[in-house]
Amino acid sequence: MKPRPPLPVTDDEVVATVHAATQGLSLPPPTTSGAVADAERTIGFPMPPLLRRLYTEVANGGFGPDDGILGVRGGHPQGSFRDIAELYEDGPDPSGLVPAGLVLIYDWGCTSWSLVDFRDPAGPMWCTEDGRLWPQGITLAEWLTATSTGTLTVTGMLDTPGLALSPDPGSGRLGRALTEADGR
Predict the structure, then answer these.
(1) Residue 102 pairs with which residues in a beta bridge?
(2) What DSSP string runs through 124-152?
(3) Using an 8 Å Cβ cutoff, are 119 and 101 in contact?
(4) What is the pTM of this model?
(5) What's the CA dihedral at 21, 92, 102, 179 to 10 degrees?
(6) pLDDT band, residue 160 (cuts 50/70/90)
(7) Contacts of 87 (CB under 8 A, 6+ apart)
């Protein structure tokens, strides 16, 4: 059996890998810095640098698992969702319990979403499903690599322990997880 090539570890390697993987696909063109800045204003946090680069250098969404991640204004939609900023404005869940700065980026279906944490430049990934929210313990770079190689699937993601959403983000298991994730 042929050994697998090493997984990309730097942003430059991830951008090159995603760019190579999308050659020949029908994706939206890269977006402008202005469209990214508009999304950041709506969200209230700067976009992780890797995601910014992917949107402005590779494509405005559409890359990643299956039918691809959402883009910013004018980019790749996913189902009835047009872009990450519009979806963020609507709120990631009807209860409003997902903390500010966690941005829905990919809909796995059946109320399962992957979110990227705009509060941290590394872009830690989170998951929400049926009233639970939990950190995935990987960055956006690792998530993109794992989903593109098939080592992270919705089944594997949902097998990780979830946290029940709590109306008080400072209390309960969710509050403790957020506190730990923020280093407080």
Answers:
(1) 117
(2) EEEEEETTEEEEEEEEHHHHHHHHHHTSS
(3) yes
(4) 0.79
(5) -140
(6) low
(7) 70, 81, 103, 104
